[in-house]
Design a protein that fits this description.
Rossmann fold; about 140 residues; alpha/beta
Amino acid sequence: MEQQVKKILWIDDNVNRYSLMPYIDELNEKGFTIVKAENPDESDDILSKQKDFLCIIVDISMPLGEKIPFGEAKGGMQTGLVILKKLVEDKALDNVKKIVFTIVDNAEVREYCNSQTPKIRYLEKYRYFTDAFVDEIKTIINDGL
């Protein structure tokens, strides 16, 4: 019997840096495969080839890439919001959980997340150590909200 690969797409300009490695390592230890994108262009490339993710984790403040206008992303402060809107519009991703994991406390982004059905979870990095973060991700994937 073939075992399902439990894939998570993580879109964050720090996804290959030390600050996120403990979270990624812990998820790997729990059996998840993390596919990394450091910017919107990389995430577009990945999503053009595969959409079989259990969830997509998105940072809010990050570089624009080549396709997102400066003003739309508010100079990079809301790049993740632009990405989230694209993810929500993509019907092939309807069953994929979307999660914000950011250091930015942004009322506009939080309001957008809460207005979606199902809601997009908004997790602030400073509130989650690795074990609690992994537990929260597993709960979101398994139980929704």
